[in-house]
Amino acid sequence: AQLDNTKDIIRINQRIIFYNDSDTTLTHIYLHNWANGYKNNKAPLAKRLIEDYDKSLYFANQKDRGFTTIKNLTVDYETAAFSEVEDDKIDIIKIVLNTPLSPKKSTTINIAYDVKIPSAKFTRYGKTKTGYHLRYWYLIPAVFKDGWKTMSNLNMDDLLTNSTDYNIKITLPKYYYLSSNLNEQKTPKGTVNEFLLTGKQITEVLMNIDIKNNYKSF
């Protein structure tokens, strides 16, 4: 991943090894795309905030909104059909598998996409005055257990996820500090720093990118 802070965009190349640990043959896979929940007024998040008498996202300027732009998606290195589940669920993606996935087998999903980071004023996650406070900023496979457990972003901090092994390489301008809930290695490269973040059996990746070093490790 690479941060373009001039446009508040994270450019991501993501590889997901999805393992079918159920006894059901799967014909499709769902991904949570919560970063897209800030895109427009049809999104479940905008409707949820209105129910709480919060009109900030509903009437937000385009520059403060967030969204995902998918450039390429393959399954086992072959192009696969994908779409948003419904017009009003723009934060969930359905991938149709070219070959059904048998129980106890795995498949590799590769996705190239950009995430426009929203303002943090809506949910506390997003662009702040001095950096970025990020949660659910990448595509996350839904849990399959007696059916798919898909959930929209309703500002409840309650996304159900499987424990996962993470390996993340992210490049940032040198004046940023990075803090996360993963193990971190930093390598300076010219005007940027390259961070390698790793963790085993983690349910989510929280990340803070800021010009101030606000966190300490213990």
Q: What topology emerges from the helices and strands here?
A:
Blueprint: E1 2-4, E2 9-19, E3 26-32, H1 44-51, E4 67-75, E5 78-79, E6 81-86, E7 89-101, E8 106-116, E9 126-127, E10 131-134, E11 140-141, E12 143-144, E13 148-149, E14 164-173, E15 177-180, E16 183-189, E17 192-202, E18 207-210
Antiparallel strand pairs: 1-2, 2-8, 3-7, 3-11, 4-5, 4-8, 6-7, 9-10, 10-18, 12-13, 14-17, 15-18, 16-17
Query: Cα-atom Rg, whole angstroms?
Result: 18 Å
Structural class: mainly beta
Q: Termini, distance in Å?
A: 26 Å
The coarse silhouette is: globular
Total helical segments:
1
Which strand-content bin applies to the residues?
A: over 45%
Largest sheet properties: 5 strands, antiparallel
Count of β-strands: 18
Strand order of the largest sheet: 1-2-8-4-5
- Compressed to H and E, one letter per element, the order equals EEEHEEEEEEEEEEEEEEE
What is the typical, i.e. mean, pLDDT? 93
What is the helical fraction, as a range of percent? under 10%
Low-confidence stretches: none
